[in-house]
């Protein structure tokens, strides 16, 4: 099974900050990586797929990069609506796995 | 508009069983692999099971393998998850989601295993 390691687990930031979250896979997953945002009591929402492709309707301040085993999600200028928990997810095959999550808080 | 609506959650005793449903609309259901993902209270996301678009291929996480059956009815655009021998650790919100990068999620249904 592919293990996904996310860091940090918690991130304190302010509106306007540039925020970077890292995700590492235990083996090569090429670019088969997605990022999801989840707010309390809500279902997750897809932000990025195939490591760097922005899902339709997602603001351009979100971007993803990386391939192989190292990936990053960047929020260029944090907005009030962005305080949430973020998860990376690999899909190199049918069996999926998630990172442990990064909570972005004030 | 794509919609996924889960149902069937509730309170069940340890050792009991439950069948979850996910009604899909707004897209060609029979063309997509479908997934179940769960989230225990205060915890992260955990993949549970997948069924291929035609129902022929099915895979399960180690935590539910042997106790769960994923299935689909393409004529009804509905996904199912049958769970038996439920344990406390199965307490979670269960989400259905579309395709391998989970581009659409349902709102989730809460399963509570408790005596």
What tags apply to this protein structure?
heterodimer; A: 106 residues; mainly beta; four-stranded antiparallel β-sheet; B: 115 residues; seven-stranded mixed β-sheet; 11 strands; 0% helix; globular
Please give a quick description of this structure.
Chain A has 106 residues and is mainly β.
Summarize the SSE layout with pairings.
The complex is a heterodimer of chains A (106) and B (115).
Chain A: E1 4-7, E2 10-12, E3 19-25, E4 33-38, E5 45-49, E6 53-54, E7 62-67, E8 70-75, E9 85-90, E10 97-98, E11 102-105
Parallel strand pairs in A: 2-11
Antiparallel strand pairs in A: 1-3, 3-8, 4-5, 4-9, 5-6, 7-8, 9-10, 9-11
Chain B: E1 3-7, E2 10-12, E3 18-25, E4 34-39, E5 45-51, E6 58-60, E7 68-73, E8 78-83, E9 92-98, E10 104-105, E11 109-113
How would you describe what is shown here?
The complex is a heterodimer of chains A (about 110) and B (about 120). By secondary structure, chain A is mostly beta strands. Chain A is built from no helices and 11 strands. Helix content of chain A is about 0%, strand content about 50%. The relative contact order of chain A is 0.33. Chain B is mainly beta. Chain B contains no helices and 11 strands.
Number of helical segments of chain A? 0
Question: Helix/strand/pairing class of chain B, anyone?
Answer: mainly beta
Succession of helices and strands of chain A: EEEEEEEEEEE
**Overall residue-averaged pLDDT value of chain B:** 97
- How far the N terminus sits from the C terminus of chain B, by CA atoms, comes to 40 Å
Largest interface: A-B, 23 and 23 residues
């Amino acid at each position: 099974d592919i293990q996904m390691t996310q860091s940090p687990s918690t991130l304190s930031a302010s509106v306007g900050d540039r925020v970077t979250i890292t995700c590492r896979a235990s083996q090569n997953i090429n670019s088969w990586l997605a990022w999801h945002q989840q707010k309390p009591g809500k279902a997750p929402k897809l932000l990025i797929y195939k490591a760097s492709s922005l899902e339709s309707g997602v603001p351009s301040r979100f971007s993803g990069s990386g391939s192989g085993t190292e990936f990053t999600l960047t929020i260029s200028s944090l907005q009030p609506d962005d305080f949430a928990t973020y998860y990376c997810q690999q899909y190199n095959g049918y069996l999926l796995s998630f990172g442990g999550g990064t909570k972005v808080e004030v | 508009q794509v919609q996924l609506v889960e149902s069937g959650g509730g309170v069940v005793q340890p050792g009991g069983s439950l069948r979850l449903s996910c009604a899909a609309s707004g897209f060609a259901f029979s063309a997509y692999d479908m997934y179940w993902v769960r989230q225990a209270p205060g915890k992260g996301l955990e993949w549970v099971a997948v069924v291929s678009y035609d129902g022929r291929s099915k895979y399960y996480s180690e935590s539910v393998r042997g106790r769960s059956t994923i299935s689909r009815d393409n004529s009804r655009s509905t996904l199912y998850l049958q769970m038996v021998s439920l344990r406390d650790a199965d307490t979670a919100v269960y989400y259905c989601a579309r395709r391998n990068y989970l581009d659409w999620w349902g709102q989730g249904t809460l399963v509570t295993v408790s005596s």
